[in-house]
Specification:
Blueprint: E1 7-8, H1 10-16, H2 23-31, E2 37-42, E3 48-53, E4 58-60, E5 76-78, H3 85-99, H4 105-123, H5 126-131, H6 135-145, E6 149-152, E7 155-158, H7 161-178, H8 194-197, H9 203-210, H10 219-234, H11 236-241, H12 246-256
Antiparallel strand pairs: 1-3, 2-3, 4-5, 6-7
């Protein structure tokens, strides 16, 4: 497509824009016939510069939808990494639905990444592919994600609860947007949620976040420390007025804390 063909009049744009999500649009998404412009900008002269169409494997967003710090690669959604045709259609449909809800491009990136991660796991097992999205396969995915680790602050640790919640939210998005696709059989966890599956709700989580991360200073240490500090605050004017005695006081304080 040439750069000239990317510039459309308002009338041309209206006939080529991808329709908003609806039952009829969903049917076209399922059979692969849905097409139309999904990313674009309106120019000052009233014409439209188009960037991507629904049928494209890579959706490119205008720089105006990012921030000053957003690099070009972060303004693209790459569906080509999803090899299965039905899964690619589902991913596009979920993202298109999120776009019409005004989700930012950075958030759309995360949605697609987590969908892709889930689909890769599904495709690693013929049994899972056959069953599709069910409570049983969803439970298996939760167990798999709980075995994953990442390096944080130089240590290998299990994935953070927030990371796991986003992984699991991909399944809820599939159920929400793609129930009409053959792959989606039932809600991943009808009486639970992605957050709960990730361990972010419940009494155990409340107890965890309620614990202070820094040990509390015992009163036997804190009270004398406060008294010592107050003695210097009470003498602040005297200390500041005597330029020649500053270093002496600083050293005295440092000695008291074991730094000299």
């Amino acid at each position: 497509m040439s750069s000239i063909e990317l510039i459309l009049t308002q009338a041309e744009f209206a006939t080529q824009q991808c329709p908003k999500p609806s039952d009829s649009t969903l049917e076209r998404a399922i059979d692969g016939s849905l097409t139309g412009i999904v990313t674009y900008i309106k120019l000052a002269n009233g014409e439209y510069q188009t960037y991507s169409r629904f049928e494209d494997d890579v959706w490119v967003f205008p720089a105006s939808q990012g921030t000053k710090a957003t690099i070009a690669s972060h303004l693209k959604l790459n569906f080509a990494t999803i090899s299965d045709t039905q899964m690619k259609r589902m991913a596009k449909w979920v993202v298109w639905g999120k776009m019409k809800e005004d989700l930012a491009v950075g958030s759309l990136q995360k949605v697609l990444t987590n969908l892709n991660t889930y689909f890769q796991w599904v495709l690693s097992s013929d049994t899972t592919v056959t069953h599709g999205l069910t409570a049983f396969t969803s439970n298996a995915y939760v167990k798999y994600v709980n075995t994953l680790t990442s390096k944080r602050k130089g240590e290998i640790k299990p994935l953070a609860e927030g990371t796991k919640a986003h992984r699991f939210l991909a399944l809820e998005n599939l159920y929400r947007y793609c129930k009409a696709f053959d792959f989606v059989k039932e809600h991943p966890w009808s009486e639970s949620s992605a957050s709960e599956q990730a361990g972010m709700v419940g009494e155990a989580y409340k107890e965890t976040i309620g614990k202070p991360k820094t040990p509390i200073i015992p009163d036997g240490v804190l009270i004398p420390l406060c008294q010592f500090t107050k003695s210097y605050l009470d003498r602040a004017d005297e200390i500041l007025a005597s330029e020649g005695r500053k270093n002496h006081y600083y050293c005295e304080i440092a000695v008291s804390f074991g730094y000299c």
